[in-house]
Amino acid sequence: MNQRFDFHEAFCRNLGWVTALELDLLRGKRVAIAGVGGVGGVHLLTLARLGIGAFNIADMDVFELANFNRQAGAMMSTLGRPKVEVMAAMARDINPELDIRIFPEGIGPDNFDDFLRDVDLYVDGLDVFALDVRAAIFAACGRLGLPAITVAPLGMSAALVNFLPGKMSFADYFGFAGASEMEKMARFLVGLSPRAMHRHYLVDPQRVDLANQRSASTPMSCQLCAGVAATEALKILLGRGKVYAAPHAISYDAYLIKQVRTWRPGGYRNPLNRLMVGLALRFMARPAAPIPHAGKTRDEIAVAYRSPPWWYDIRGFFVLTFAYNSTIGAQLRFFGPHFGRDHIEIACGTGTLLDLLLRWRRWKKLPVVNITGIDYAESMLAGAQHRFAGNDRVTLRHADAAKLPFADQSFDTANIANAIHCLPEVDAALKDMFRVLKPGGTLAANVLLYPRGVWPLKRIAERVNAWGIRKGILYTPYERDDIRRRIVAAGFEVVVETQLGNTYNLVARRPAPAT
Length: 515
Fold this sequence. Notes:
With 515 residues, the chain is of the alpha/beta class. Helices cover 37% and strands 18% of the residues. An eight-stranded mixed sheet has the order 3-2-1-4-5-6-7-8, with helices on both faces.
Protein backbone atom coordinates (compact mmCIF):
# COMPACT_ATOMS: atom_id res chain seq x y z
CA MET A 1 0.00 0.00 0.00
CA ASN A 2 1.43 3.38 -1.06
CA GLN A 3 0.02 5.91 1.40
CA ARG A 4 1.25 9.45 1.89
CA PHE A 5 2.24 10.51 5.40
CA ASP A 6 -0.21 12.72 7.26
CA PHE A 7 0.89 14.00 10.68
CA HIS A 8 -2.56 14.40 12.20
CA GLU A 9 -3.71 10.97 11.09
CA ALA A 10 -0.46 9.31 12.16
CA PHE A 11 -0.75 10.60 15.71
CA CYS A 12 -4.52 10.96 16.06
CA ARG A 13 -4.65 8.19 18.69
CA ASN A 14 -2.82 10.54 21.07
CA LEU A 15 -5.91 12.75 20.99
CA GLY A 16 -8.00 12.41 24.09
CA TRP A 17 -4.91 12.38 26.25
CA VAL A 18 -3.79 15.57 24.52
CA THR A 19 -5.97 18.08 22.70
CA ALA A 20 -5.64 18.84 19.00
CA LEU A 21 -4.06 22.18 19.94
CA GLU A 22 -1.57 20.44 22.26
CA LEU A 23 -0.63 17.94 19.54
CA ASP A 24 0.21 20.87 17.27
CA LEU A 25 2.21 22.47 20.09
CA LEU A 26 4.26 19.25 20.50
CA ARG A 27 4.83 19.21 16.74
CA GLY A 28 6.53 22.59 17.09
CA LYS A 29 8.87 21.54 19.94
CA ARG A 30 12.54 20.55 19.69
CA VAL A 31 14.08 18.07 22.14
CA ALA A 32 17.81 17.44 22.52
CA ILE A 33 18.96 13.91 23.43
CA ALA A 34 22.62 13.18 24.15
CA GLY A 35 23.25 9.47 23.75
CA VAL A 36 20.86 7.44 21.57
CA GLY A 37 22.00 3.94 22.46
CA GLY A 38 20.26 2.45 25.52
CA VAL A 39 17.65 4.72 27.07
CA GLY A 40 18.34 7.55 24.62
CA GLY A 41 17.32 5.55 21.55
CA VAL A 42 14.02 4.50 23.11
CA HIS A 43 13.47 8.09 24.30
CA LEU A 44 13.83 9.30 20.70
CA LEU A 45 11.34 6.84 19.22
CA THR A 46 8.82 7.32 22.03
CA LEU A 47 8.95 11.11 21.76
CA ALA A 48 8.66 10.88 17.97
CA ARG A 49 5.48 8.82 18.41
CA LEU A 50 4.21 11.40 20.89
CA GLY A 51 4.35 13.93 18.05
CA ILE A 52 7.50 15.93 18.88
CA GLY A 53 8.53 17.53 15.60
CA ALA A 54 12.25 18.24 15.94
CA PHE A 55 15.30 16.74 17.62
CA ASN A 56 18.99 17.32 18.17
CA ILE A 57 20.66 13.95 18.79
CA ALA A 58 24.29 13.18 19.62
CA ASP A 59 26.29 9.97 19.87
CA MET A 60 29.79 9.06 18.71
CA ASP A 61 29.39 5.28 19.08
CA VAL A 62 28.46 2.45 16.72
CA PHE A 63 26.21 -0.54 17.40
CA GLU A 64 27.78 -3.79 18.58
CA LEU A 65 26.56 -7.18 19.78
CA ALA A 66 26.72 -6.21 23.47
CA ASN A 67 23.98 -3.62 22.77
CA PHE A 68 21.37 -6.16 21.64
CA ASN A 69 19.73 -6.74 25.02
CA ARG A 70 18.42 -3.19 25.40
CA GLN A 71 19.15 -0.74 22.56
CA ALA A 72 16.34 0.01 20.11
CA GLY A 73 18.62 0.32 17.10
CA ALA A 74 20.83 -2.69 17.80
CA MET A 75 20.18 -5.40 15.19
CA MET A 76 22.23 -7.63 12.93
CA SER A 77 21.55 -5.21 10.08
CA THR A 78 23.00 -2.26 12.04
CA LEU A 79 26.19 -3.80 13.47
CA GLY A 80 29.08 -1.38 13.10
CA ARG A 81 26.87 1.49 11.94
CA PRO A 82 26.81 4.88 13.73
CA LYS A 83 24.04 5.06 16.30
CA VAL A 84 22.95 8.59 15.39
CA GLU A 85 22.47 7.66 11.74
CA VAL A 86 20.53 4.49 12.52
CA MET A 87 18.30 6.15 15.11
CA ALA A 88 17.66 9.22 12.93
CA ALA A 89 16.53 6.89 10.13
CA MET A 90 14.25 4.94 12.50
CA ALA A 91 12.69 8.16 13.81
CA ARG A 92 12.15 9.48 10.26
CA ASP A 93 10.51 6.17 9.40
CA ILE A 94 7.92 7.07 12.05
CA ASN A 95 7.62 10.70 10.99
CA PRO A 96 9.21 11.64 7.64
CA GLU A 97 8.64 15.32 8.41
CA LEU A 98 10.96 15.31 11.43
CA ASP A 99 13.64 17.99 11.61
CA ILE A 100 16.64 16.09 13.04
CA ARG A 101 20.08 17.57 13.56
CA ILE A 102 22.68 14.90 14.24
CA PHE A 103 25.96 15.30 16.13
CA PRO A 104 28.04 12.22 15.25
CA GLU A 105 31.04 13.53 17.18
CA GLY A 106 29.09 13.44 20.45
CA ILE A 107 28.86 16.44 22.75
CA GLY A 108 31.39 18.51 24.62
CA PRO A 109 32.05 22.11 25.67
CA ASP A 110 32.97 23.00 22.08
CA ASN A 111 29.53 22.23 20.69
CA PHE A 112 27.15 22.67 23.63
CA ASP A 113 25.80 25.91 22.16
CA ASP A 114 25.06 24.29 18.78
CA PHE A 115 23.62 21.18 20.39
CA LEU A 116 21.22 23.16 22.59
CA ARG A 117 20.29 25.80 19.97
CA ASP A 118 16.49 26.21 19.55
CA VAL A 119 15.90 23.45 22.09
CA ASP A 120 12.87 23.41 24.41
CA LEU A 121 13.91 20.44 26.57
CA TYR A 122 17.00 18.30 27.17
CA VAL A 123 16.58 14.55 27.85
CA ASP A 124 19.61 12.70 29.16
CA GLY A 125 20.61 9.48 27.36
CA LEU A 126 24.32 9.45 28.18
CA ASP A 127 26.13 6.35 29.37
CA VAL A 128 25.98 5.98 33.15
CA PHE A 129 29.76 6.38 33.39
CA ALA A 130 29.89 9.66 31.39
CA LEU A 131 29.77 11.70 34.59
CA ASP A 132 31.84 14.76 33.69
CA VAL A 133 30.17 15.47 30.34
CA ARG A 134 26.78 14.85 31.96
CA ALA A 135 27.52 17.44 34.65
CA ALA A 136 28.70 19.88 31.97
CA ILE A 137 25.62 19.56 29.73
CA PHE A 138 23.26 19.94 32.71
CA ALA A 139 25.20 23.05 33.74
CA ALA A 140 24.79 24.40 30.21
CA CYS A 141 21.05 23.75 30.39
CA GLY A 142 20.95 25.61 33.69
CA ARG A 143 22.70 28.65 32.18
CA LEU A 144 20.26 28.69 29.25
CA GLY A 145 17.19 28.19 31.44
CA LEU A 146 16.32 24.86 29.78
CA PRO A 147 14.44 22.15 31.66
CA ALA A 148 16.35 18.86 31.73
CA ILE A 149 15.31 15.28 32.53
CA THR A 150 17.37 12.27 33.52
CA VAL A 151 15.73 8.85 33.93
CA ALA A 152 18.15 6.06 34.79
CA PRO A 153 17.58 2.36 34.03
CA LEU A 154 18.55 0.62 37.28
CA GLY A 155 17.81 -3.09 37.35
CA MET A 156 14.18 -3.31 36.30
CA SER A 157 13.30 0.18 37.44
CA ALA A 158 13.22 3.76 36.21
CA ALA A 159 14.78 6.44 38.43
CA LEU A 160 13.70 10.00 37.59
CA VAL A 161 15.17 13.36 38.56
CA ASN A 162 14.03 16.59 36.86
CA PHE A 163 16.05 19.81 36.83
CA LEU A 164 13.90 22.86 36.16
CA PRO A 165 14.81 26.54 35.77
CA GLY A 166 14.88 28.29 39.13
CA LYS A 167 15.04 25.00 41.06
CA MET A 168 17.97 23.06 42.52
CA SER A 169 20.74 22.55 39.98
CA PHE A 170 22.41 19.30 38.93
CA ALA A 171 25.64 20.46 40.59
CA ASP A 172 23.93 21.18 43.92
CA TYR A 173 21.99 17.93 43.87
CA PHE A 174 24.79 15.52 42.93
CA GLY A 175 27.84 17.48 44.09
CA PHE A 176 30.50 16.23 41.66
CA ALA A 177 32.86 19.19 42.20
CA GLY A 178 36.12 18.06 43.81
CA ALA A 179 34.97 14.44 44.18
CA SER A 180 36.94 11.40 43.01
CA GLU A 181 35.57 9.30 40.14
CA MET A 182 34.32 6.63 42.55
CA GLU A 183 32.69 9.24 44.77
CA LYS A 184 31.01 10.86 41.75
CA MET A 185 29.58 7.50 40.77
CA ALA A 186 28.37 6.84 44.31
CA ARG A 187 26.76 10.30 44.56
CA PHE A 188 25.14 9.89 41.14
CA LEU A 189 23.62 6.48 41.88
CA VAL A 190 22.44 7.49 45.36
CA GLY A 191 20.99 10.74 44.04
CA LEU A 192 19.10 8.95 41.29
CA SER A 193 17.65 6.30 43.55
CA PRO A 194 18.21 7.04 47.25
CA ARG A 195 16.35 3.87 48.28
CA ALA A 196 18.20 1.69 45.71
CA MET A 197 15.31 -0.76 45.47
CA HIS A 198 16.98 -2.63 42.61
CA ARG A 199 19.72 -3.91 44.92
CA HIS A 200 17.34 -6.49 46.40
CA TYR A 201 17.21 -8.69 43.30
CA LEU A 202 20.68 -8.42 41.78
CA VAL A 203 21.39 -12.15 41.55
CA ASP A 204 24.99 -11.99 40.33
CA PRO A 205 26.90 -9.00 41.74
CA GLN A 206 30.08 -10.17 39.99
CA ARG A 207 28.53 -8.89 36.74
CA VAL A 208 28.65 -5.34 38.10
CA ASP A 209 32.06 -3.75 38.52
CA LEU A 210 31.63 0.02 38.76
CA ALA A 211 35.33 0.59 39.35
CA ASN A 212 36.05 -0.89 35.90
CA GLN A 213 32.93 0.64 34.29
CA ARG A 214 31.06 -2.63 33.82
CA SER A 215 27.35 -2.76 34.58
CA ALA A 216 24.32 -4.96 33.99
CA SER A 217 21.15 -3.87 32.20
CA THR A 218 17.71 -5.04 31.14
CA PRO A 219 15.48 -4.14 28.17
CA MET A 220 12.53 -3.58 30.53
CA SER A 221 14.25 -0.75 32.35
CA CYS A 222 14.97 1.14 29.12
CA GLN A 223 11.33 0.86 28.07
CA LEU A 224 10.16 1.99 31.50
CA CYS A 225 12.52 4.97 31.38
CA ALA A 226 11.23 6.04 27.97
CA GLY A 227 7.65 5.99 29.21
CA VAL A 228 8.55 8.05 32.26
CA ALA A 229 10.70 10.52 30.29
CA ALA A 230 8.04 11.06 27.61
CA THR A 231 5.38 11.64 30.25
CA GLU A 232 7.55 14.22 32.02
CA ALA A 233 8.36 15.80 28.64
CA LEU A 234 4.65 16.12 27.86
CA LYS A 235 3.95 17.83 31.19
CA ILE A 236 6.91 20.18 30.90
CA LEU A 237 6.38 21.12 27.24
CA LEU A 238 2.61 21.61 27.58
CA GLY A 239 2.80 23.22 31.03
CA ARG A 240 0.27 20.93 32.68
CA GLY A 241 0.45 18.33 35.41
CA LYS A 242 2.62 18.17 38.53
CA VAL A 243 6.34 18.05 37.81
CA TYR A 244 8.63 17.19 40.74
CA ALA A 245 12.08 18.75 40.50
CA ALA A 246 15.29 18.05 42.42
CA PRO A 247 15.72 17.53 45.34
CA HIS A 248 12.78 15.20 44.66
CA ALA A 249 13.61 11.83 43.06
CA ILE A 250 11.06 9.26 41.92
CA SER A 251 11.71 5.57 41.32
CA TYR A 252 9.34 2.96 40.00
CA ASP A 253 10.48 -0.66 40.19
CA ALA A 254 8.52 -3.11 38.02
CA TYR A 255 10.12 -6.17 39.64
CA LEU A 256 9.07 -5.15 43.13
CA ILE A 257 5.89 -3.43 41.86
CA LYS A 258 6.77 -0.46 44.02
CA GLN A 259 7.10 3.32 43.64
CA VAL A 260 9.09 5.56 45.95
CA ARG A 261 9.35 9.35 45.95
CA THR A 262 12.14 10.84 48.04
CA TRP A 263 12.88 14.42 49.07
CA ARG A 264 16.45 15.23 49.99
CA PRO A 265 16.77 18.97 50.77
CA GLY A 266 20.39 19.96 50.41
CA GLY A 267 20.97 17.33 47.74
CA TYR A 268 24.26 15.51 48.23
CA ARG A 269 24.80 17.43 51.50
CA ASN A 270 21.68 15.88 53.04
CA PRO A 271 22.69 13.64 55.99
CA LEU A 272 20.76 10.66 54.64
CA ASN A 273 22.38 10.97 51.23
CA ARG A 274 25.81 11.35 52.79
CA LEU A 275 25.26 8.20 54.80
CA MET A 276 24.11 6.28 51.71
CA VAL A 277 27.06 7.57 49.68
CA GLY A 278 29.45 6.42 52.40
CA LEU A 279 27.92 2.95 52.39
CA ALA A 280 27.95 2.83 48.59
CA LEU A 281 31.63 3.75 48.49
CA ARG A 282 32.42 1.07 51.03
CA PHE A 283 30.65 -1.60 48.97
CA MET A 284 32.09 -0.38 45.65
CA ALA A 285 35.65 -0.40 46.98
CA ARG A 286 35.47 -3.84 48.61
CA PRO A 287 36.84 -6.55 46.35
CA ALA A 288 34.94 -9.80 46.19
CA ALA A 289 36.18 -12.11 48.91
CA PRO A 290 38.43 -14.68 47.25
CA ILE A 291 37.26 -18.26 47.65
CA PRO A 292 40.24 -20.60 47.48
CA HIS A 293 40.04 -23.81 45.48
CA ALA A 294 40.30 -26.79 47.77
CA GLY A 295 42.33 -29.12 45.56
CA LYS A 296 41.65 -31.89 48.08
CA THR A 297 41.35 -35.56 47.20
CA ARG A 298 38.24 -37.60 47.91
CA ASP A 299 40.06 -39.27 50.81
CA GLU A 300 40.94 -35.90 52.35
CA ILE A 301 37.33 -34.82 51.92
CA ALA A 302 36.13 -38.05 53.57
CA VAL A 303 38.40 -37.32 56.55
CA ALA A 304 36.78 -33.89 56.90
CA TYR A 305 33.46 -35.64 57.55
CA ARG A 306 34.71 -37.65 60.54
CA SER A 307 32.48 -35.74 62.92
CA PRO A 308 29.69 -37.34 64.96
CA PRO A 309 26.48 -37.44 62.89
CA TRP A 310 24.68 -35.10 65.31
CA TRP A 311 27.41 -32.45 64.89
CA TYR A 312 27.26 -32.71 61.11
CA ASP A 313 23.49 -32.16 61.24
CA ILE A 314 23.85 -29.02 63.37
CA ARG A 315 26.66 -27.70 61.20
CA GLY A 316 24.68 -28.52 58.07
CA PHE A 317 21.71 -26.47 59.27
CA PHE A 318 23.84 -23.33 59.63
CA VAL A 319 25.58 -23.91 56.28
CA LEU A 320 22.18 -24.36 54.62
CA THR A 321 20.91 -21.13 56.16
CA PHE A 322 23.93 -18.86 55.70
CA ALA A 323 25.71 -20.26 52.61
CA TYR A 324 22.84 -21.69 50.57
CA ASN A 325 20.36 -19.02 51.79
CA SER A 326 17.80 -21.84 51.70
CA THR A 327 15.62 -23.82 54.12
CA ILE A 328 14.84 -27.43 54.96
CA GLY A 329 11.26 -26.83 53.83
CA ALA A 330 12.40 -25.67 50.40
CA GLN A 331 14.56 -28.79 50.01
CA LEU A 332 11.72 -31.11 51.02
CA ARG A 333 9.42 -29.52 48.46
CA PHE A 334 12.08 -29.77 45.76
CA PHE A 335 13.49 -33.27 46.30
CA GLY A 336 10.41 -34.94 47.79
CA PRO A 337 8.48 -35.58 44.55
CA HIS A 338 11.52 -36.98 42.67
CA PHE A 339 11.48 -40.60 43.78
CA GLY A 340 10.88 -43.34 41.20
CA ARG A 341 10.25 -47.00 41.94
CA ASP A 342 13.99 -47.74 42.08
CA HIS A 343 15.80 -44.69 43.45
CA ILE A 344 19.43 -43.88 44.26
CA GLU A 345 20.31 -41.22 46.85
CA ILE A 346 23.86 -40.07 46.06
CA ALA A 347 25.98 -38.64 48.90
CA CYS A 348 23.24 -39.44 51.40
CA GLY A 349 25.44 -38.47 54.38
CA THR A 350 23.98 -39.30 57.77
CA GLY A 351 20.57 -39.85 56.19
CA THR A 352 18.95 -36.92 58.01
CA LEU A 353 17.58 -35.28 54.89
CA LEU A 354 16.60 -38.63 53.36
CA ASP A 355 14.69 -39.51 56.53
CA LEU A 356 12.86 -36.17 56.41
CA LEU A 357 12.09 -36.69 52.73
CA LEU A 358 10.55 -40.10 53.41
CA ARG A 359 8.46 -38.64 56.23
CA TRP A 360 7.36 -35.83 53.90
CA ARG A 361 6.39 -38.39 51.25
CA ARG A 362 4.33 -40.39 53.76
CA TRP A 363 2.57 -37.19 54.83
CA LYS A 364 1.81 -36.45 51.16
CA LYS A 365 0.68 -40.10 50.70
CA LEU A 366 3.18 -40.68 47.89
CA PRO A 367 4.15 -44.22 46.83
CA VAL A 368 6.69 -46.25 48.82
CA VAL A 369 9.85 -46.86 46.78
CA ASN A 370 13.06 -48.88 46.94
CA ILE A 371 16.04 -46.68 47.86
CA THR A 372 19.77 -47.21 47.53
CA GLY A 373 21.92 -44.68 49.37
CA ILE A 374 25.66 -44.19 48.83
CA ASP A 375 28.33 -42.06 50.48
CA TYR A 376 32.13 -42.03 50.46
CA ALA A 377 32.53 -40.82 54.07
CA GLU A 378 32.32 -43.97 56.20
CA SER A 379 31.60 -42.14 59.47
CA MET A 380 28.61 -40.37 57.94
CA LEU A 381 27.40 -43.55 56.30
CA ALA A 382 27.52 -45.24 59.72
CA GLY A 383 25.05 -42.63 60.97
CA ALA A 384 22.71 -43.41 58.07
CA GLN A 385 23.02 -47.17 58.69
CA HIS A 386 22.00 -46.64 62.32
CA ARG A 387 19.07 -44.44 61.29
CA PHE A 388 17.65 -46.88 58.71
CA ALA A 389 18.54 -50.15 60.49
CA GLY A 390 14.91 -51.26 60.59
CA ASN A 391 13.88 -50.08 57.11
CA ASP A 392 14.15 -52.91 54.55
CA ARG A 393 13.29 -50.45 51.75
CA VAL A 394 16.60 -48.59 52.22
CA THR A 395 19.93 -50.18 51.21
CA LEU A 396 23.17 -48.32 52.01
CA ARG A 397 26.54 -48.76 50.29
CA HIS A 398 30.00 -47.27 50.72
CA ALA A 399 30.79 -45.94 47.24
CA ASP A 400 32.38 -43.13 45.24
CA ALA A 401 29.95 -41.02 43.21
CA ALA A 402 32.40 -41.10 40.28
CA LYS A 403 32.59 -44.93 40.34
CA LEU A 404 29.12 -46.19 41.18
CA PRO A 405 29.09 -49.99 41.75
CA PHE A 406 25.86 -50.57 39.86
CA ALA A 407 24.93 -51.89 36.45
CA ASP A 408 23.92 -49.60 33.60
CA GLN A 409 20.32 -48.35 33.70
CA SER A 410 19.64 -49.59 37.25
CA PHE A 411 17.56 -46.71 38.62
CA ASP A 412 14.48 -44.71 37.70
CA THR A 413 15.52 -41.60 39.63
CA ALA A 414 18.51 -40.12 41.44
CA ASN A 415 18.85 -37.33 43.97
CA ILE A 416 22.07 -35.60 44.95
CA ALA A 417 21.29 -33.07 47.67
CA ASN A 418 23.81 -30.48 48.92
CA ALA A 419 26.74 -32.40 47.45
CA ILE A 420 27.62 -31.77 43.78
CA HIS A 421 29.87 -28.93 44.91
CA CYS A 422 31.63 -31.36 47.30
CA LEU A 423 32.75 -33.73 44.53
CA PRO A 424 36.39 -33.43 43.39
CA GLU A 425 35.62 -35.22 40.08
CA VAL A 426 32.26 -33.71 39.24
CA ASP A 427 32.32 -34.46 35.50
CA ALA A 428 33.11 -38.16 36.06
CA ALA A 429 30.41 -38.33 38.73
CA LEU A 430 27.77 -36.77 36.46
CA LYS A 431 28.61 -39.22 33.68
CA ASP A 432 28.30 -42.18 36.07
CA MET A 433 24.97 -40.88 37.36
CA PHE A 434 23.83 -40.73 33.75
CA ARG A 435 25.03 -44.29 33.19
CA VAL A 436 23.08 -45.84 36.06
CA LEU A 437 19.81 -44.07 35.20
CA LYS A 438 17.28 -45.71 32.92
CA PRO A 439 16.29 -43.87 29.72
CA GLY A 440 13.77 -41.24 30.74
CA GLY A 441 15.08 -41.33 34.32
CA THR A 442 15.65 -38.06 36.16
CA LEU A 443 18.38 -36.55 38.32
CA ALA A 444 17.32 -33.94 40.89
CA ALA A 445 20.19 -31.84 42.23
CA ASN A 446 20.95 -28.60 43.97
CA VAL A 447 24.24 -26.80 43.53
CA LEU A 448 25.90 -24.17 45.71
CA LEU A 449 26.62 -21.05 43.65
CA TYR A 450 29.16 -18.33 44.27
CA PRO A 451 27.52 -15.94 46.74
CA ARG A 452 25.30 -13.23 45.37
CA GLY A 453 22.81 -10.76 46.79
CA VAL A 454 23.29 -7.87 49.18
CA TRP A 455 25.71 -7.24 52.01
CA PRO A 456 25.86 -8.58 54.70
CA LEU A 457 24.31 -11.85 53.48
CA LYS A 458 26.76 -12.12 50.60
CA ARG A 459 29.70 -11.49 52.93
CA ILE A 460 28.51 -14.13 55.41
CA ALA A 461 28.11 -16.69 52.62
CA GLU A 462 31.61 -15.93 51.32
CA ARG A 463 33.10 -16.53 54.76
CA VAL A 464 31.15 -19.76 55.29
CA ASN A 465 32.27 -21.06 51.89
CA ALA A 466 35.90 -20.15 52.50
CA TRP A 467 35.76 -22.00 55.83
CA GLY A 468 34.14 -25.02 54.15
CA ILE A 469 36.88 -25.20 51.54
CA ARG A 470 39.63 -24.97 54.15
CA LYS A 471 37.86 -27.61 56.22
CA GLY A 472 37.45 -29.88 53.21
CA ILE A 473 33.67 -30.20 53.28
CA LEU A 474 33.32 -28.02 50.16
CA TYR A 475 35.30 -28.51 46.97
CA THR A 476 34.14 -25.43 45.07
CA PRO A 477 30.99 -23.36 44.46
CA TYR A 478 29.91 -22.92 40.84
CA GLU A 479 28.60 -20.38 38.44
CA ARG A 480 25.15 -21.43 37.27
CA ASP A 481 26.08 -21.52 33.58
CA ASP A 482 29.19 -23.60 34.30
CA ILE A 483 27.49 -26.39 36.23
CA ARG A 484 24.58 -26.44 33.79
CA ARG A 485 27.02 -26.89 30.91
CA ARG A 486 28.69 -29.79 32.73
CA ILE A 487 25.35 -31.51 33.34
CA VAL A 488 24.39 -31.18 29.68
CA ALA A 489 27.85 -32.41 28.62
CA ALA A 490 27.27 -35.56 30.69
CA GLY A 491 24.30 -36.35 28.42
CA PHE A 492 21.38 -34.93 30.41
CA GLU A 493 18.71 -32.56 29.21
CA VAL A 494 17.63 -29.97 31.80
CA VAL A 495 13.86 -29.98 32.21
CA VAL A 496 13.35 -27.82 35.33
CA GLU A 497 15.65 -25.17 36.80
CA THR A 498 15.14 -22.56 39.49
CA GLN A 499 17.36 -20.43 41.69
CA LEU A 500 16.76 -19.77 45.37
CA GLY A 501 19.26 -17.74 47.34
CA ASN A 502 22.71 -19.03 46.46
CA THR A 503 21.31 -22.39 45.33
CA TYR A 504 20.68 -23.64 41.79
CA ASN A 505 18.00 -26.34 41.72
CA LEU A 506 17.48 -28.45 38.63
CA VAL A 507 15.87 -31.62 37.38
CA ALA A 508 17.69 -33.24 34.45
CA ARG A 509 16.53 -36.21 32.38
CA ARG A 510 18.40 -38.99 30.61
CA PRO A 511 16.76 -38.77 27.18
CA ALA A 512 14.72 -41.77 26.09
CA PRO A 513 15.65 -43.36 22.73
CA ALA A 514 13.82 -41.92 19.76
CA THR A 515 10.98 -44.14 18.57
